[in-house]
Amino acid sequence: MSVFLPGIGAACCLGFGFVLQQRQAQRAPLSESLFFRLLLGLMRHPQWLVGVAAMILGMVLSTIALANGEVSLVEPLTTTNLLFAMALSRWLTGQPLGWNGWGGVLLLALGVTGFLVAGQPSEGGHLAGPLRQWILFGIVVGLAGLLVTLARHLRPALRAAVLACAAGLLYGLQDSLTRISSRIVSRHGIAVLFAHWQPYVVACLGVTGLVLVQTAFQAAPLRSSLPALTAAQPLAGIASGVGIIGDRLQATPGALTVQTVGLMTMVIGIVLIGRHPCVAPEVPHGR
Fold first, then answer.
1. DSSP sequence for 166-189
2. CA-based R_g, the chain, Å
3. Alpha helix locations (H) across the chain?
4. pLDDT per residue as tens digits for the range 123-166
5. Between 229 and which of 100, 164, 193, 284 could a Cys-Cys bridge form, CB atoms 3.0 to 4.6 Å apart?
6. First to last CA, the chain
7. Most confident of the following: 38-42, 44-48, 130-134, 254-258
């Protein structure tokens, strides 16, 4: 219960926050893309600030969940943020869910449930050594950097998806480092935390991810970016949790099969929900 309640609460806040941010970010001038001045311009708009406040609250709740449970348990829970984003978008647009919407909701719920039941995420592995941590860190950050470079040459809808995917990779890595930071605090106290590199990297990843997400929201409607963001974050988070923190999942052939099917079902559900017409209608960019 100490994991599920803050995990679902985090998903709710993140989903609402993403919708409110995107509705304002898409009105920003395209000349500000991938620059911190995009954030400075958006800060003048109350709706965007409310969205960021909701996202920050979601991150706080996610941190609480990570302090009490494994990354591979928390990440699937936070994918349900898309359900809350869809609920708010439906209320704002008045679009009915229809078969695609309800199908996506069902597939996402089944995928999350199947993965958690079959995987039975648990703690018990050993934290990876510094060299392995930095190698895995470099792989994720390097892949995100390649996606950002690639995005510059793509049409707006695809650019939004690729940038959101890059942000999701960084957020998944951020969650793993947040889990490590919570371990340090629980064992040695908060004062010792600042002698380690993880909290500083967590902050840098958060800010960089925020810029990428706002640029993705700016480039195209939410349905182009949110599915990629929601799918990439748990995949990167679970991989980082197992590879860096030592989270354990059931490894029998049957369990691995169900986990794989569960992850695939989650991704299909995420795509169906994200492409539903109620998720963020297109609005004109600012000049």
1. HHHHHHHHHHHHHHHHHHHHHHH-
2. 18
3. 4-25, 36-42, 46-68, 71-78, 81-93, 98-119, 130-151, 156-188, 190-193, 198-219, 222-240, 253-274
4. 666 777 778 888 888 999 999 999 999 998 889 889 999 999 99
5. 164
6. 48
7. 254-258
